[in-house]
Each structure stands twice: as structure tokens, then as C-alpha cells.
Specification:
65% of the residues lie in helices and 0% in strands. It is mostly helical. α2 runs antiparallel to α3. The two termini are 14 Å apart.
Amino acid sequence: MRTGSEPATARSALRARFWLSLWGLVWAVFGTVAFALTGRTGWAVACGVLWLVATVDLTVVLRHLRQGPHYQPGRDVPPYPPPRD
């Protein structure tokens, strides 16, 4: 059911974002090291930029997770206020 307030009450799947950011961080580090060792400077720089983006995203996600239920409510909290009759 749509209430019309979805953009204001939308919630992110922070735990999924955490694991995806961690996965991206691991591959970005691996790519940076592998390309740097093989002498592919351009690709190493590109992976380094991805490493930076994944680190920033991971930091933001962890900050929101630590802020508690305001950003990551429990299963008993509805995603929006119930409609009033």
C-alpha cells in the first residue's frame, strides 16, 4: 500500500550495503595490488579510486548502523506510519 510519504520514510538495507561494500573493498584492494605489481598503473589507479569509494561507503554504513534504530529499525517497526482512517 502506498501512502505518498515513501521518499521521506524510505529505509536502506544497511546490512546488505555493509556486505556489498566489504566485498567491493576486498576486490578493490586486490585489484590495486595486482595491477601495481604487474605494472598496469592506470588500472591500479582506477582500483585505488574504487578502494576509496568503497571505504567511504563502508564508513557511512557503519556510522548509520551504530546510530541505532533511527536508521536501522527492528522488524516490529513499520517502514511508514500506518494510514489513518
